[in-house]
DNA sequence: ATATAAAAAGACCTATATGTCTTTTTATAA
DNA sequence: TTATAAAAAGACATATAGGTCTTTTTATAT
């Protein structure tokens, strides 16, 4: 469903958020180790997330990744949009270039239902809500 | 959601089915033109579908693609499985290697709901049901 | 000031998906 | 039996996603 890059992005942000709650600013090497992702590539992904202003970073000694204090919850949708692109939730599931209610593909309505339930889910779930689930030991990030 | 290759595969099979109902056995060039897909690549995709026994083909004059007369309806799931691979509907949405009810990722249940609604849909919809929708002019394949 | 530890940046590499071109095989019609 | 029309096959080509390596920049501690 989602690309690996997006999966790394979400897991990385969740890990950063959890560490921030402990007062830590993890670097990409630590993050990669903890979320089980390729180190350098994770650095690149985090660069992109920082450029998209979904996370902040500091260079130099004591630097790392962190969220600015009063951060609005970050929905998974925002992350998906930043990594996969804006059209992710609007393409025709049947591959037609033009497909709408007037000129629908034969999957139109049924696909819309599935897509919308996915869309709803990624708008409800946030980096923060996932992190809380992990902190309550109701779920795992694979390590920690 | 689905790769382009799978989209071509589904559209091609629907077109073949519709033409078969008219007593025709279209070739890949005609199919590609009608479903708006790259010609040679569509030929390759159809080769794979034929190898997977989702469709039959005849070489030589008068040849082309067709379904054997008493064909069980072909679900979209079968096509997806043949093109995308068996694991398409079983991977963790969060990217964890091991993720199950005992050791769930923080998206486990919510993702399962979305994935299962997609799974249900592709098991209900068949090449035949999509073709019928198009024949009744309730939907379009882009041409025809 | 200097050393150090961190992210940023840029050049590259690899794998996979997607797509094209050419040749071979095969069924049918003339 | 030969010409023809079709799929099959194989060798390429291109684009994108995923990944690595090296160098540069920058903040901090000494």
The CATH topology annotation of chain A reads as Arc Repressor Mutant, subunit A
The assembly state of the depicted protein chains is homodimer
Content of β-strand of chain A: under 5%
The helix/strand class of chain A is mainly alpha
Uncertain stretches of chain A: none
**CATH hierarchy: architecture of chain A:** Orthogonal Bundle
Describe this structure in words.
Two copies of one chain form a homodimer. By secondary structure, chain A is mainly α. Chain A has a single domain, classed as Arc Repressor Mutant, subunit A (Orthogonal Bundle), CATH 1.10.10.10. Chain A is 51% helix and 4% strand. The first copy, chain A, is built from six helices and two strands; from the N terminus they run αααββααα. A two-stranded antiparallel sheet of chain A has the order 1-2. In chain A, β1 and β2 form a beta hairpin. In chain A, α1 crosses α3. Chain A starts with a helix and ends in a 9-residue tail after the last helix. The model of chain A has no long low-confidence stretch (mean pLDDT 96). Chains A and B meet through α1, α5 and α6 of A and α1, α5 and α6 of B. The structure holds a DNA duplex (30 and 30 nucleotides).
């Amino acid at each position: 469903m989602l690309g690996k890059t997006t999966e790394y992005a979400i897991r990385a942000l969740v890990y950063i958020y959890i560490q921030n709650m402990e007062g830590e600013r993890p670097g990409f090497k630590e993050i990669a180790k903890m979320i089980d992702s390729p180190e350098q590539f994770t650095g690149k992904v985090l660069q992109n997330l920082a450029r998209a202003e979904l996370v902040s970073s500091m260079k130099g000694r004591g630097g790392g990744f962190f969220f600015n204090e009063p951060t609005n919850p970050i929905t998974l949708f925002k992350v998906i949009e930043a990594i996969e692109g804006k059209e992710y939730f609007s393409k025709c599931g049947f591959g037609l270039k033009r497909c709408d209610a007037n000129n629908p593909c034969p999957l139109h309505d049924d696909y819309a239902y599935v897509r919308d339930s996915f869309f709803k889910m990624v708008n409800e779930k946030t980096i923060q809500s996932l992190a809380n689930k992990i902190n309550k030991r109701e779920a795992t990030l694979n390590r920690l």
